C-alpha cells in the first residue's frame, strides 16, 4: 500500500507538510499544494480514515453540463471520472438544463465544495455570466474558444455543420431543414447551423430558417406535422443525435418513412444511433476522449501550474442508412 511517506518523498517535502496538504489541516503554499497532490496522484495514494474515525477530505473537481439525459454528456462525464479516479479526485456534477439563468446557481453550488477546479459546458460561452466570475482553474468543454476562455477542449462545430450539409447536397437534396434546440441554450447548435448555411450558400441553394424547439421538454412526443407541411423538406439535419432520433419518430408518426420519404442526419455519434434501424447518419465527435482531455488539462493547470491551452479535436462523418441518395 502506498504510504504518506512515499508521497512526501516524491514531492520533496516533510511528512508533516504532506499531511497538512492532504488533510487540509494547516497553512501550505499553493506551489507545495500542487506538488503534493501531483505526487499523491503519481504514486496512487488514497486517503484513509484517521485515528479519530473522521475521514480525510478527498479533493474534488466540479463539472457543469447542460443535461445528464443526453448521452453526449454522459460519455464526457465517463472520460472525466476515469481520469479523476486515477488522480484521486472525486467528481461533483451540476446541470443547467440548457438554461443560462441556472448556470450561476449551478456553479455556485459547485464552488461551495471548494473544488480543485471546474470543467464547464455552458449554454453560450460568449454571453455566459459564469465565465466572468472569480473561478478556480477551469476548462471549457465543448464550447468554442472565446477571448475570456484560455483553456478549451472543443470541436469545429461550424465545419461539422458544413460537412454534413455537403453530404446531403451531394446526395441530391436541396430542401434541407435544420431542426435544433434553442440557439441561446447551445452555441454548439448555432455553430452547426452556421455551417449548414455556409454549405447551402456555397452550393447556391437557399437555406431554410432553422426550426428551434426546447432541448429537454417532451422530445419523445415531438410533433413536426406543421413543420413538415410548411417546409416540405427532403432531408432534415438535427442539431444532435438525440434530437435526430426524436425527429425520425416524429416523421414516422406523420405517416412518412426514413429515408424513403425524408432523410435525417445528426451530430455527436452516440452509441444508440448505431443500434437503430436504419443506422443514423451523423458526425461523430470523440466525447469521452474530450472529457478525459479536459480532466487532464485541468489537473495540469491546478496541480502543476501549467499554462492554459486550447485543443480542437477532429470530427468524422459516419454514413448511415437514414440518408437516401436521390441524385
The CATH homologous superfamily name of the largest domain equals Response regulator
Intertermini distance: 66 Å
Percent range of helical residues: 25-40%
The rounded Rg comes to 23 Å
Strand content: 15-25%
**Shape from CA axes?**
elongated
Number of domain modules: 3
Strands in their spatial order, largest beta sheet:
2-1-3-4-5-11
Largest sheet at a glance? 6 strands, parallel
Class from secondary-structure proportions: alpha/beta
- List the helices and strands in order: HHHEHEHEEEHEHEHEHEEHEE
Q: Could you outline the blueprint of secondary structure elements for this entry?
A:
Blueprint: H1 4-11, H2 15-23, H3 30-43, E1 60-65, H4 71-87, E2 90-95, H5 100-111, E3 118-120, E4 138-141, E5 152-155, H6 157-170, E6 176-181, H7 187-202, E7 211-213, H8 225-231, E8 235-238, H9 241-253, E9 263-268, E10 281-284, H10 287-304, E11 310-313, E12 316-318
Parallel strand pairs: 1-2, 1-3, 3-4, 4-5, 5-11, 6-7, 6-8, 8-9, 9-10
Antiparallel strand pairs: 10-12
Helix pairs in contact: 1-2, 1-3, 2-3, 3-10, 4-10, 6-7
Characterization of this structure:
- The protein has 327 residues and is of the alpha/beta class.
- The chain folds into three domains: 4-43; 60-156 and 286-313, Response regulator (Rossmann fold, 3-Layer(aba) Sandwich); 157-285, Response regulator (Rossmann fold), CATH 3.40.50.2300.
- 39% of the residues lie in helices and 16% in strands.
- It has helices spanning 4-11, 15-23, 30-43, 71-87, 100-111, 157-170, 187-202, 225-231, 241-253, 287-304; strands at 60-65, 90-95, 118-120, 138-141, 152-155, 176-181, 211-213, 235-238, 263-268, 281-284, 310-313, 316-318.
- The strands form two sheets. The chain has a six-stranded parallel sheet with strand order 2-1-3-4-5-11, sandwiched between helices. Strands 7-6-8-9-10-12 form a six-stranded mixed sheet, with helices on both faces.
- Helix 1 (4-11) crosses helix 3, helix 3 (30-43) crosses helix 10 (287-304) and helix 4 (71-87) runs parallel beside helix 10 (287-304).
Amino acid at each position: 500500500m502506498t504510504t504518506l511517506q512515499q508521497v512526501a518523498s516524491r514531492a520533496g517535502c516533510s511528512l508533516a507538510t504532506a499531511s497538512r496538504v492532504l488533510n487540509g489541516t494547516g497553512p501550505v503554499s499553493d506551489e507545495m499544494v500542487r506538488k503534493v497532490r501531483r505526487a499523491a496522484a503519481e504514486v496512487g495514494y488514497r486517503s484513509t480514515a484517521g485515528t479519530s474515525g473522521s475521514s480525510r477530505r478527498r479533493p474534488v473537481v466540479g463539472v457543469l453540463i447542460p443535461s445528464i439525459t443526453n448521452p453526449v454528456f454522459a460519455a464526457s462525464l465517463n472520460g472525466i471520472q476515469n481520469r479523476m479516479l486515477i488522480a484521486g479526485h472525486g467528481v461533483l456534477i451540476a446541470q443547467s438544463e440548457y438554461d443560462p439563468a441556472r448556470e450561476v446557481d449551478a456553479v455556485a453550488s459547485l464552488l461551495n465544495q471548494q473544488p480543485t477546479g471546474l470543467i464547464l459546458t455552458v449554454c453560450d460561452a460568449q454571453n455566459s455570466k459564469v465565465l466572468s466570475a472569480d473561478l478556480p482553474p477551469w476548462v471549457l468543454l465543448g464550447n468554442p474558444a472565446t477571448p475570456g476562455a484560455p483553456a478549451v477542449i472543443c470541436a469545429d462545430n461550424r465545419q461539422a455543420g458544413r460537412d454534413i450539409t455537403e453530404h446531403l447536397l451531394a446526395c441530391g437534396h436541396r430542401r434541407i431543414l435544420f431542426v435544433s434546440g434553442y440557439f441561446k441554450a447551445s452555441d454548439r447548435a448555432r455553430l452547426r447551423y452556421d455551417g449548414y448555411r455556409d454549405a447551402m450558400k456555397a452550393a447556391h441553394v437557399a437555406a431554410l430558417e432553422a426550426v428551434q424547439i426546447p432541448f429537454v421538454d417532451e422530445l419523445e412526443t415531438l410533433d413536426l406535422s406543421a413543420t413538415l407541411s410548411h417546409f416540405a423538406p427532403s432531408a432534415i439535419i438535427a442539431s444532435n443525435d438525440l434530437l435526430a432520433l426524436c425527429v425520425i419518430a416524429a416523421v414516422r408518426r406523420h405517416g412518412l418513412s426514413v429515408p424513403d420519404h425524408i432523410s435525417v442526419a445528426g451530430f455527436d455519434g452516440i452509441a444508440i444511433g448505431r443500434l437503430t434501424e436504419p443506422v443514423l447518419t451523423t458526425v461523430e465527435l470523440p466525447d469521452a476522449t474530450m472529457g478525459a482531455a479536459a480532466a487532464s488539462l485541468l489537473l495540469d493547470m491546478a496541480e502543476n501550474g501549467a499554462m492554459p491551452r486550447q485543443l480542437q479535436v477532429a470530427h468524422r462523418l459516419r454514413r448511415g442508412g437514414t440518408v437516401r441518395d436521390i441524385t
